[in-house]
Design goal:
alpha/beta, 7-stranded mixed β-sheet, 15 strands, binds 4'-deoxy-4'-aminopyridoxal-5'-phosphate
């Protein structure tokens, strides 16, 4: 028996737009075919615009996932003994710490209560400590949106701090890029990395990053080269060739995803980045209005530190982790908790990209969550939640 496809409202992979779907639903072309060369070249120039990066920043598109993009950055920048800071907001910052330690870095890990973001002044203090010891800090790492807690960090002061102290700043934008405001050039950030399956709006399979000249220079200055498949030096000539509309080869790219990338980035840019950020802010506010009406409390305690790409919501009294399966029975996939400290106490709903342009998807999602909670015998007012969401969306449109 065929199970009907569920609406995918997890924090990635996400629902993709018809245009993106059409772009990848073709017989796979060769990597040197004219349509792939054109799509690859277009994608690289469009990435600079979505990242709000300067002309000298180098975009990289390689096969892999967000974890690949993280590992590649560490492999190119970090050598044994390098001092680094991590502004840690949860599960994915912990992953970055692990990668940095394996690369032999001396890591200062600034942690916070789940759902909160360490204050930038703590990072400044850590820089001071290293300065007193006469040691330069190579880089500061932060996760723009930690998908395990829904915590949103503000990269701007962190990038400024790193610049001021002569360090590189690296931001994991896997659950943020193309949705949360990020101004790579204006803020002076050095690496902003992501994957294809979240706010970029594609299936999984591409690791994406834009890298500053300073970061490329740090790779040039390494004593030992990184593993070949991660080496920016190996990939950069390929990116330059495609951007000049010439074919090139280092390792085979997933060609159908390259076609989809050009379509997806173009779609994002059709309305412009300001409109794109506003779409996510508006969507998040509407979803929050629905959650409040259902009596759900978000994990991030402060609204200014709550992501616009997902909601991380604590289970109300009388509800447990089987809620996720109960919501699935109602036709919608949402995600369970991920942060090891309180995994069993909350669930997560993704709201990014194409889904935010589909009020019917948002209504189905709120309705399925309301139905799931009601199935525990906990009284909820589904109609009020839908009404709150729609009113919020309409109020935003009217202003
Ligand atoms: N960083 C963040 C913030 C993420 O949300 C994820 C994926 N959920 C990753 C890194 C890892 O990406 P991937 O699963 O594509 O390897």
């Amino acid at each position: 028996m065929n199970t009907p496809r569920k609406l995918v409202m997890i924090p990635g992979p996400v629902e993709v737009s018809p245009r993106v779907r059409e772009a990848f639903s073709v017989a796979p072309p060769g990597h040197l075919s004219p349509e792939v060369i054109e799509a690859f070249g277009t994608s690289l120039s469009l990435m600079r615009r979505v990242w709000l990066a300067g002309p000298s920043a180098q975009p990289f598109v390689v096969p892999g996932s967000g974890t690949t993009a993280m590992e590649m950055t560490v492999a190119n920048l970090i050598e044994p003994g390098d001092a680094v800071l991590v502004v840690n907001t949860g599960y994915f910052s912990d992953r970055m710490v692990e990668m940095l330690k394996r690369a032999g870095a001396d890591v200062v890990d600034l942690t916070a209560v789940p759902g909160e973001v360490p204050n930038a002044s703590r990072a400044a203090g850590a820089f001071d400590d290293f300065a007193r010891a006469g040691r330069p800090v190579k880089a500061l790492f932060a996760t723009h949106v930690d998908t395990s807690t829904g915590a949103l960090c503000d990269p701007k002061p962190l990038a400024a701090l790193a610049r001021d102290r002569g360090a590189l700043s690296i931001f994991d934008g896997v659950c943020a890029t193309a949705a949360e405001r990020f101004e790579m050039d204006a803020w002076g950030a050095d690496v902003y990395l992501t994957a294809s399956q979240k706010a970029i709006g594609l299936p999984a399979g591409l690791a994406l990053a834009v890298v500053s000249e300073r970061a490329l220079a740090a790779r040039d200055a390494r004593r030992q080269p990184p593993p070949l498949s991660h080496d920016w030096h190996a990939w950069r000539p390929v990116m330059e060739a495609y951007e000049a509309r010439k074919g090139a080869y280092f390792a085979t790219p997933p060609t159908t995803l390259i076609l989809a990338l050009a379509a997806g980035l173009q779609e994002i840019l059709n309305s412009g980045m300001e409109a794109r950020f506003a779409l996510h802010e508006r969507g998040a506010r509407a979803m929050r209005a629905a959650w409040t009406a259902l009596g759900l409390r978000p994990v991030p305690a402060r609204e200014a530190q709550a992501a616009h790409t997902l909601s991380a919501l604590r289970f109300p009294g009388g509800v447990d982790a089987t809620l996720v399966a109960r919501v699935a029975e109602r036709g919608v996939s949402v995600a369970g908790g991920l942060h090891p400290a309180f995994r069993g106490e909350y669930f997560r709903v993704g709201h990014m990209g194409y889904a935010l342009t589909r009020v019917d998807y948002l209504m189905r999602c709120v309705s399925a969550v309301a139905g799931g909670i009601a199935s525990f015998g906990v009284p909820v007012d589904e109609a009020a939640a839908i009404h709150a969401m729609l009113s919020s969306l309409q109020a935003e449109v009217a202003t």
